[in-house]
Design goal:
Radius of gyration of chain B: 21 Å
Largest interface: A-B, 36 and 30 residues
Radius of gyration of chain A: 47 Å
Shape of chain B: elongated
Number of strands of chain B: 11
Number of helices of chain B: 2
Order of helices and strands of chain A: HHHHHHEHHEEEE
Oligomer: heterodimer
């Protein structure tokens, strides 16, 4: 059976989005007028002509499947829509012919050319039309009917397929992904973020230098008024390292503060005292003692 | 991806911003401090920096060798790192008078001012020497305390 010759007039307009959401309702599955309930009122369906079993045979399933897959399949035969009930002999022949032999339809079941009195039953009246799109090929489908992948909805800007014989939707265009497809505003935010980082670095260093001016060096303030005069400093610098602690303390009075105790040498705790300079309060003279020994001094620029 | 004018403009804009950031850091880089000489009081025949049998001596008497294995060395106090010899730096702190610390074996150490706890460098094998100031201006190798090393090597 030539599947490629079946007309498949897909277009975005023929697949409204509402079609997707209403697939579970058999009444609205086929909104096309040719397949609507109005065209086929139940009362006009004689049970004798449309017995239940033919709807379940393989051929009707295939027709259902194709009708669903192909959407509002437009049958070129105008008489099909105008006279939906062909004569009984043709209907019987098509319904009872479960194998759908090619001989009955020389041009195939859905020929391109107008088919006289094409006796296709209405799949909308099947007891349970398959949900659109059918996830799988319905059971009992003849093997020559290749399963159709569910039609993927194309991008609204993509061209509408015009060739009915096209077997796959190769025109479907997926929008390119990637960072450079993002809107320009995101890049602007990124640039602002980078600029904020740069701006934060400069003031951060200013603030950190301001922290240096605090008394974080001191562990305990002993005498807040203590300062070191030039004379005291000059006299202190004459004392060599490793002299007794008492020589230093004879020159200078109580320190401004005591810095946290540390131990540099193994087994020798160190005591550090700080003396702000009278002529340069931002500079401290730090004196380190180890036991009763004066170890050394250094200037600390806060 | 199509190379369009707007694409080129975006790429140029991003490259410009990155260049500004890189330049900002590049020009704010502090200058490397000058090398500091050191007169060690103890004189030995084999000292760090010499060569023996065409091999370089990376540690001598008075150095504590620590298997860093890629670990970091932190500044035990706020201070300054200055180059001393190839592969060696000297760390000193104004808050710790009369002492110097010689650190050898650090890869690409950070030179200049460092805050307390800031990383000085990392390496595989650290030679740590503690030097105490002498009245004649030389420096004597002394044994560092465990507390000092733990402050420097805290993970």
């Amino acid at each position: 059976m030539p599947q490629s010759s079946a007309p498949r007039p897909y277009s975005d307009s023929s697949y409204p989005d509402a079609h997707h959401t209403e697939v579970s309702h058999p009444e609205v599955t086929y909104p096309d007028a040719n397949y609507s309930d109005a065209s086929y009122p139940d009362a006009s369906y004689p049970d004798a002509n449309y017995p239940d079993p033919p709807y379940h045979d393989a051929a009707s399933r295939e027709r259902e499947y194709q009708a669903v897959n192909y959407g509002n399949m437009t049958y070129p035969n105008p008489s099909y829509s105008q006279a939906p009930y062909p004569d009984n002999s043709q209907l019987q022949a098509s319904y009872l012919n479960t194998a759908y032999p090619d001989a009955a339809y020389p041009n195939g079941p859905y020929p391109d050319a107008p088919h006289p009195a094409s006796p296709h039953p209405q799949p909308a009246y099947a007891p349970a039309p398959p949900a659109y799109p059918p996830p799988h090929r319905p059971p009992g489908l003849p093997p020559h009917a290749a399963p159709q992948s569910p039609p993927s909805y194309s991008h609204p800007t993509s061209p509408t397929p015009s060739h009915p014989a096209r077997s796959t939707f190769t025109h479907t265009r997926i929008p390119p992904l990637g960072p450079l497809s993002r809107p320009w505003s995101l890049w602007g935010l990124f640039a602002l973020f980078l600029g904020a980082i740069v701006l934060l670095i400069g003031p951060g260093r200013v603030f950190s230098s301001a922290v240096h001016k605090s008394n974080r060096h001191c562990q305990e303030v002993i005498q807040p008024q203590t300062v070191l005069s030039r004379a005291q400093l000059a006299q202190l610098l004459t004392i060599p390292e490793r002299d007794p602690k008492q020589r230093i303390q004879a020159i200078i009075a109580e320190p401004y503060c005591i810095m946290p105790s540390v131990q540099i040498r193994a087994g020798t705790p160190a005591l550090r005292e700080a003396y702000p300079l009278e002529f340069d309060p931002e500079t401290w003279l730090v004196v380190l003692y180890e036991g009763d020994e004066y170890a050394g001094y250094r200037f600390l620029y806060r | 991806m199509r190379v369009t004018g707007s694409f080129i403009a975006k790429v140029a804009g991003i490259a410009g911003i990155i260049g500004l950031v890189v330049g900002h850091f590049w020009w704010k880089r502090p200058e490397a401090p000058a090398a500091r000489a050191l007169q060690v009081q103890q004189q030995w025949e084999l000292e760090i920096g010499q060569r023996v049998a065409d091999y370089r001596i990376v540690g001598g008497l008075g150095d504590i060798s620590i298997a860093l294995q890629g670990g970091k060395v932190q500044a035990p106090f706020g201070g300054e790192v200055r180059p001393h010899m190839p592969d060696c730096v000297i760390f000193s702190s104004p808050g710790v008078p009369a002492y110097l610390f010689r650190l050898c074996g650090l890869h690409r150490p950070q030179l200049g001012a460092v805050k307390q706890g800031e990383t000085i460098g990392a390496g595989e094998m650290l030679q740590f020497a503690t030097l105490r100031k002498q009245p004649d201006g030389s420096w004597s190798l002394v044994e560092p305390s465990r507390d000092l090393l733990e402050r420097s090597l805290r993970r």
